[in-house]
Amino acid sequence: MEEKHKKLFGYAVVGAFGTVAVGLMIGSIPFVMPAFRRICLPFVPATDNQVRNVISLLKKRKGNVIDLGSGDGRIVLAAAKMGFPAVGVELNPWLVIYSKIKTLYLGLSDSASFQRRDIWKTDLKKYDNIVIFGVEQMMAQLEEKLCQELKKMDVSLLVDFLYQTGVNHYLLELALIQFGSMKENLYIIIKIHYDSHSSLVISNSL
């Protein structure tokens, strides 16, 4: 009888560990999947310094804000605290849920919202300030998307990506504003408009 109880206990322990392992695997899928996409954008929380830099640039702006790839929502919530109507777009469902819960906790539901959506399928036409923390490999595709969707005369774009001198000089890099050394991430804020020939023109907005 005692041997039977030991076996049952062993099965229960194995079952419990198996359940936990499966749960961890399922829960980690949204965090692992970015590595299998054509452009890998893993979740890396914005540092306090990054948030401060973005907010310092937004202080000079008006209108609404969208954060493409909003992660845990800290940029959106910081913008909402400043009075901006702010939207976060994020593909990871767990991060979206977390951001929504934090929004409710902070009482910012009137000004901050989050959507589970692919950033490349997000229409940017109605936004005045666009924030994106990305990688250099996405700059060409981002530039193409901006050319197609941004027709307003005054739209600011805040981009944070690792810049490598002499590699892939995209149009978006023309208005770089540096915080720190060249080895660190850079931020740009630009105005986008179209000239008489419908060509994209980017100029420093500060």
UniProtKB/TrEMBL annotation:
<dbReference type="InterPro" id="IPR025714">
    <property type="entry name" value="Methyltranfer_dom"/>
</dbReference>
<dbReference type="GO" id="GO:0016279">
    <property type="term" value="F:protein-lysine N-methyltransferase activity"/>
</dbReference>
<dbReference type="GO" id="GO:0005739">
    <property type="term" value="C:mitochondrion"/>
</dbReference>
<keyword id="KW-0489">Methyltransferase</keyword>
<protein>
    <recommendedName>
        <fullName>Methyltransferase domain-containing protein</fullName>
    </recommendedName>
</protein>
<keyword id="KW-0812">Transmembrane</keyword>
<dbReference type="InterPro" id="IPR029063">
    <property type="entry name" value="SAM-dependent_MTases_sf"/>
</dbReference>
<comment type="similarity">
    <text>Belongs to the ANT/ATPSC lysine N-methyltransferase family.</text>
</comment>
<keyword id="KW-0949">S-adenosyl-L-methionine</keyword>
<keyword id="KW-0472">Membrane</keyword>
<keyword id="KW-1133">Transmembrane helix</keyword>
<feature type="domain" description="Methyltransferase">
    <location>
        <begin position="60"/>
        <end position="143"/>
    </location>
</feature>
<dbReference type="GO" id="GO:0032259">
    <property type="term" value="P:methylation"/>
</dbReference>
<dbReference type="GO" id="GO:1905706">
    <property type="term" value="P:regulation of mitochondrial ATP synthesis coupled proton transport"/>
</dbReference>
<keyword id="KW-0808">Transferase</keyword>
<dbReference type="InterPro" id="IPR026170">
    <property type="entry name" value="FAM173A/B"/>
</dbReference>
<dbReference type="Pfam" id="PF13847">
    <property type="entry name" value="Methyltransf_31"/>
</dbReference>
<feature type="transmembrane region" description="Helical">
    <location>
        <begin position="12"/>
        <end position="33"/>
    </location>
</feature>
